[in-house]
Amino acid sequence: MATLAQKLPYTHPFAGGFPYRGSQRLPSDPDALTYLAAVAAADGAPVEVGVAVAVDDFFRVTKASGVFDALKACCILAGARTLAGALVPVVGTSPTNVADGFVEGDFSRTAGLAGDGTSKIDSGRANDADPQNDQHVAIYATSAATNNTYSTGVGTTGNGVTNLVLLSTGGGGVYTRSRSNTDNGGLAFTTGLAGVSRDSSASYNSYANGLTNNTGTASQTPVGDNIFIFNTGASTPTNATLAFYSIGTSLSLEDLDTAVTNLITAIGEAL
User: Fold this and answer.
1) Rounded CA separation 24/53 (Å)
2) What is d(CA 144, CA 242) in angstroms, rounded to the nearest whole number?
3) C-alpha–C-alpha distance, residues 184 and 164, integer Å
4) 6-26 b/e (C-beta count within 10 Å ≥ 16 → b)
5) How far is CA 159 from CA 163, 182, 200, in A?
6) Hey, which residues does 10 pair with through a beta bridge?
7) Which range, 17-26, 186-195, 223-232, 243-252, is most confident?
């Protein structure tokens, strides 16, 4: 029979500081452990072991599917204890909370970061950092945009742009651009993963509501402006709540959706 001490959470010497019960699996992927240590440093304390295992599974699943190597700038905007922890990058440089627009009250550990129609995040990654015909951007929304009928979730402005324009519930969808000034879409979308991925000069895939649409729009030379989250750096920022974003080279948006959906679901179950 287990003693009371064995039933209570404690800090295991090999648990990376996570509050730990003897029957719980611990994270062990080296990259996940490095990320979790950086989040703990920003938060001032480690996350719960259930959250840590959810993150560990995300790293493992994306590596197994080939998605992880395509992530060049990425944040899990949920799970951490603080806004500072949520802005610790999975990969890439640290993003900038522009003008400290987002505050602690905008952050939910289970839902993510709530847009206010004004604030934005500079990803720190230039739109032309990835090849013209080898790029993706994606966001994961846990609540839909309700502000303006034309607000941008992620992207840049100018020629050869890549962005996702999230329509309000009245508009009911997402419009996409991938290395082009031409809008495409009207894809049904409220919550979940939305993204674009281009691996060809002639066309790209857009993804929303679990569906992939191949769009025959030729690519243009990309501008070098940084990619922003919650807006393009110049347009109206979305007030959707976002729990994840990624930028990088082309990938399977379906595989990314599976990994991120499982991650956000597992974080919610752990908290």
Assistant:
1) 9
2) 9
3) 10
4) eeeeeebeebbebbbeeebee
5) 12, 10, 18
6) 20
7) 243-252
Q: Write the CATH number of the domain with boundaries 4-270.
A: 2.60.120
Tokens of 261: 């959906």
Question: Is the CB of residue 25 less than 8 Å from the CB of residue 32?
Answer: no
Tokens of 43: 């938060």
Domain boundaries, the chain: 4-270
Task: Output the 3-class SS for the chain.
Answer: CCCHHHHCCEECCCCCCCEECCCCCCCCCHHHHHHHHHHHHHHCCCCCHHHHHHHHHHHHHHHHHCCHHHEEEEEECCCCCCHHHHCCCCECCCCEEHHHCCCHHHEECCCEEECCCCCCEEEEEECCCCCCCCEEEEEEEEECCCCCCCEEEEECCCCCCEEEEECCCCCCCEEEEECCCCCEEEECCCCEEEEEEECCCCCEEEEECCEEEEECCCCCCCCCCEEEECCCCCCCECCCEEEEEEEECCCCHHHHHHHHHHHHHHHHHHC
Tokens standing for residue 101: 């627009």
- Beta strand pairing status for 112-114 and 241-248? antiparallel
Whole-number pLDDT of residue 9: 41
27-80 confidence digits (pLDDT tens): 889 999 999 999 999 999 999 999 999 999 999 999 999 999 999 999 999 999
- Which of 114, 130, 83 has its CA nearest to residue 247? 130
Among all chains, which residue has been given the structure tokens 């599974």? 57
Compute the residue count for the chain: 271
pLDDT at residue 155 above 70?
A: yes
Average pLDDT over residues 156-162: 70
